[in-house]
Amino acid sequence: MVNAPTAVTALLPVLLFALTGLALLLIDTIRPSGRSNTSMAVVSALGSLGALGATAWLVVSGTVGVDAGAVRLFADTIAVDTMALFFIAIFASVTALVVVAAHDYFHDHANPAAFYSLVLFATTGMALLAVANSLAVVFVALEMVSLPSYVLVAFLKQNRGSVEAGMKYFLVGALSSAIFLFGISLVYAATGSLLFGDVAEAVGSLDGLAGVAGLGIVMIVGGVAFKTASVPFHFWAPEA
User: Fold this and answer.
1) pLDDT: is 10 or 95 the higher one?
2) How many whole angstroms separate alpha carbon 96 and alpha carbon 112?
3) Is the backbone of residue 156 left (phi > 0), alpha (psi -120 to 50) or beta?
4) CA distance 196 to 205
5) How much is the pTM?
6) Which residues, other chains included, contact 61 with Cβ-Cβ below 8 Å and sequence gap of 6+?
7) How far apart are CA 106 and CA 152, in angstroms?
8) Domain limits of the chain?
9) Contacting residues for 83 by C-beta, under 8 A, at least 6 apart
10) Residues near 143 by beta carbon (within 8 Å), at least 6 away in sequence
11) How does pLDDT run across 82-92, given as a tens digit for each residue?
């Protein structure tokens, strides 16, 4: 069983994303005069770079690596390994670039903190998705990515196209979430587990993918395809 300090250390990059997003909201709430576009961009960039540094430190220190193996947390529902840290490093790098690029765009915006915090919360969901080892965690992580994304698409509230695209994205996202969740329930009914390893082993022992398990997998793939705008489920993407 992994102790609490090790769990916090292994999830440090994910926690840094979340804490940075909360810090932005806190600054925006208790110190409105300090919520300038530059300060919000700097805090966001530092939080992203801090998560990137924590990711590199986990590998260099040997906490996670080829020799150390994956750090498994919360009854194996989360697995932090080198592959997960690789994707978290990509998310952190891209987020830092996004907030820096957004600095000029929001130079005259009244409340830029909302944008930067939403970006950080969406990145938190992406990082959690990278370390997920359970279909339940995958669903929660996808929703953590999706909910801020809906708001970001409709962020320009005075722009009719932005609001319309955000509404369409929300409706499609709600439908895909329902399909994805129902698929998870079918897979659980067929395999008796939500952990990736157990599901793969149970599906491998089944006689093909016909029946409940096959239908559940198809619904899961369809839900993810909607979320990721994969062909032919990409019709909402141009407006969004």
Assistant:
1) 95
2) 16
3) beta
4) 14
5) 0.87
6) none
7) 13
8) 1-133, 135-240
9) 130
10) 125, 177
11) 899 999 999 99
CA distance 193 to 174: 25
* pLDDT at 16 > cutoff 60: yes
- pLDDT tens for residues 27-79? 888 776 656 778 888 899 999 999 999 999 988 887 776 666 778 888 889 99
Q: What is the pLDDT of residues 179-202, one digit of tens each?
A: 999 999 999 988 888 999 888 888
Q: Residue 134: what pLDDT?
A: 94
Confidence of residue 223 (pLDDT cuts 50, 70, 90): confident
> 78-87, 162-171, 205-214, 222-231 — which is least confidently predicted?
205-214
Phi-psi region of 167 (alpha: psi -120 to 50; beta: other; left: phi over 0): alpha
> What is the rounded CA–CA span in Å between residue 70 and residue 225?
28
Q: Which of 139, 150, 153, 195 is nearest to 173 (CA)?
A: 150
Exposure class string for 108-117: b at 16+ Cβ within 10 A, else e: eeeebbbbbb
Phi and psi torsions of 53, nearest 5°: -65, -40
